Fold this sequence. Notes:
By secondary structure, this protein is mainly β. It is built from no helices and twelve strands. A hairpin with a 7-residue loop joins strand 3 and strand 4 (41-45).
Amino acid sequence: MTGGGVWKTTNGGLAWTPVSDSIGVGSIGAVAAAPSNGDVVWVGSGEANNMRSSSWGVGVFKSTDYGVSWSLLPSTSGAQATAFTGEWQYVHRVAIDPSEAINDEVYAAVYGFIERSTDGGATWTRVLGDAVTQSRYTDVVVSSTGVVYASLSRDGGT
């Protein structure tokens, strides 16, 4: 995914087509498809690989037509991809809670924090992390029964 955007195949991987051209950000750190609704795809922009090859993103994008069109979620936007200004510029993972399909519950592992949305990304609540000792690397996964597992690096990732 590094610096290449999001690509889609409809023939088992024989041919690929870029579907993230409308996003305008080539640095994609996370992709997730909703298990209960195959039309919904989430893309987190930015990659915090290391100090020399990190690429800033601008937030989380959502598609409701399986990647044909994309919308930047206003609740995660506001950053520019030219300088680090906030946690939504590094989205390490987007994890959908399959046990909460009705509530459209999703988690995002961003720079320093784990964020949770119960309204399809319209709003987010910080559920883990500390603004003083922000972790450079974070991760979150959700089991099929809704158990959430999260990790944060011990220091700033240096």
